[in-house]
Specification:
It is built from 13 helices and twelve strands. It is of the alpha+beta class. It folds into two domains: about 90 residues, Phosphorylase Kinase, domain 1, CATH 3.30.200; about 200 residues, Transferase(Phosphotransferase) domain 1 (Transferase(Phosphotransferase), domain 1, Orthogonal Bundle). The strands form four sheets. A five-stranded antiparallel sheet has the order 3-4-5-7-6. Strand 1 and strand 2 form a beta hairpin. Helix 5 runs antiparallel to helix 7. About 15% of the residues have low confidence.
Length: about 375
Amino acid sequence: MPSINISVSYADHHRNKRKREHLDISHDGTHHHLLPTHESSHFLDGLKLPNILVRWIPLKHSPPSDQEPLIPSSQPQSSSFASKYGSCTEILHYGTHSSVRVYTRKSSRDSKSRQLHIVKVFRPSSQPSITSHYRLEQHLSSSLSHPNICRATDALRNDRGELCLVMDYCAGGDLNSFIATSGKLETVEADCFFKQIIRAVSFLHENGIAHRELKTENILLSAHGAVKIADFGSAECLVHSSEQSAMTTYCLAPRKLFGTVSYIAPEELQGEKVEDPRAGDVWTAALVYMAMRWGRLLWGIASEEDTQFGEYLSGRQTEEGYPPIEALGRTSRRNVVYAMLHPVPHRRITASNVLRSEWVHGVVVCDAGELGL
C-alpha cells in the first residue's frame, strides 16, 4: 500500500497557514523555503541511510585497494573521532554488518550550539568482503559530487577502531514526512523540489548509474529546501562496451527486484528483462512529483489488477485523460508527466529530456537548491 497516509481531517486553512510559513515567494518570482528543522532525528525512522553504491561498481572504476587513502579528512588523522564528531546520541538503523547513527558535537565556544552528523559504522569482521564494501562505498561516494546528492564527507576509524563513513545531517527531514505533515505542496514548491530531483537523477544517468529505489523516504531536505537524494544501496551501474552497441551491467551481487512496490515500474513487476534500469528511475521520479502535488501516491502497484492503476491506463487513452494529471494545469507539465509514466520503458522520456522540456526548463529553483545548502 502507498506509504504516505494523509488524514483528510486537516482543514484547508490550517494547511495553507503551514504552507505560508515554510514558503516565501517574492514579487520577482524567486522564492525560498523555511522548512521546520528537526532537533531530533526521529524523522529518519525506518529510512535506510545512504549505502552509497555498496553493491555496484562500473568497469571504468577499479575497486580501491587496502593501501588507497580514504576520503581526505577535514582534520588531521591524529584527531580522535570523538573530538571531530562528538558522541552518538541516537541509533537510526542497526543492520547485520553496520549501523547508522546520529553523532552530536557541542561547540567549545557556545554550549548551546550543536553540530549533527550521520555516521555509518561498520562493525569489525573477519570477512574481507565487509572491508571491501566499506572501501568501495567510500570510493564511489566521494566521486559523486552533485548539489542534490547525499554523499560521504569523511571516512575514518572511530575510537574503537571501527570503520566509519560520515554524512551531513539534513535538518529538514525526509520528503515523505514533509508531505505527511504538510499535505499537498504548492506548485512552486513541488516544482522546485522536482527539478532538483531530476537534476540529480540526470547526473547519475549520465554517469551510467541507476538509483533503482527513488521514493519520498529516500529524498532528504535541508532546512532551506535543498534536495538530497539518499540510499544508493540498490543502485546499478551500466557500462558501455566498445564491442557492443548496448549498455550492459556490471554488479557485485545477483540481480533482484528492487524498490518499494508502489513505486516499481510495470516492466520490473512483469519480470521482463530490463535492458536499461534508468527508465525505472524516470517512472519513480514522476510518482514522487505526483505525491508532492496530491499528498498521496496514485496507486498501490503498477498492475492492471490495481483499480487506480487501471484507471490511469484507461485515462491516458482518452481525450479526457487521467484526472490527477489533468489537474496539474499547464499542458507542458501534464505532457511531461504522461511521458515519464509511459507504460513501455523504451518509449519513456529520459531524465535529460525532462530537464530540457519547456516546463522544467522554466522552473525556478531556490538558491539553496542551486547550491545544495
